[in-house]
Amino acid sequence: MNSGIPDGKFAPYMLIFYTIQSNALCFVFFSILAVKNLIDIKTNGIKGSTSVFPHLKGAVTMTISMTFIIYHFVLVPLYTSHDANYRVLNWQNILVHYFVPIMTVLDWLLFDKKQNFRWFDPMLWITVPISYFVFLIVRAKIGGIIAIVQSKYPYFFVDVDILGWLNVLKYAGVFILGFLVLGYVIYLVDKISLENIRFDFVKPTSYYSNTYKA
């Protein structure tokens, strides 16, 4: 729906956007997971759990979660302030900015084995947004104007031509810090294993019951 193919005109420039790349990452990861799941069902039966690259799953969850956060809290207010007719809730936006992020987070919360991440994993996960930032800078140097935004940069906060390197690096630093914070939120939630949380509603035996117990 975002590729332009349904409208009869392929739009490869859409692959430049973080939203599309993060959704593509989810597509590849869950495709591999689906194949592994089928193999596990065949070899081990229908009961049990399936996992592939469990540490990478944290990176995928962080990456797609930020797609929702940046779009909903940064880009939507920006777009709607400049264009009153901007459609936040069309199918393209719902699928890539809301449905996939929410389903990915729920998949991790509900089905993944917890207490699996290492303390330094979030520092490894931020290589994903850092790599994307490098990609944007290199693409702008060797590529042309992106038609939909009329700029060599897909987002205003990485537009070196307008903001200059210092401001772009400031924006990049803030976003990388945001990714790191989000990564450690995921890490901390991962440490909270629901299996270890017990609620004892049975009242303890009273002193007199213990004293006079036969």
Question: Can you describe this structure in just a few lines?
Answer:
The chain is mostly helical. Helices cover 63% and strands 0% of the residues.
Describe this structure in words.
This protein is an all-alpha fold and 214 residues long. The protein contains seven helices and no strands. Helix 2 (54-82) runs antiparallel to helix 3 and helix 5 runs antiparallel to helix 6 (160-191). It starts with 17 loop residues before the first helix and ends with a helix. Mean pLDDT is 86; it is low at 197-214.
Fraction of residues in β-strands:
under 5%
User: H/E element string?
Assistant: HHHHHHH
The helix fraction, in percent, is 55-70%
Question: pLDDT below 50 for ≥5 consecutive residues: which ranges?
Answer: 197-214
Query: Helix count?
Result: 7
Report the span from N to C terminus.
Answer: 74 Å
Backbone structural class: mainly alpha
Average pLDDT for all residues: 86
Total number of beta strands: 0
The Rg value, from CA coordinates, equals: 23 Å
User: How is the main sheet built?
Assistant: none
**Broad shape:** globular
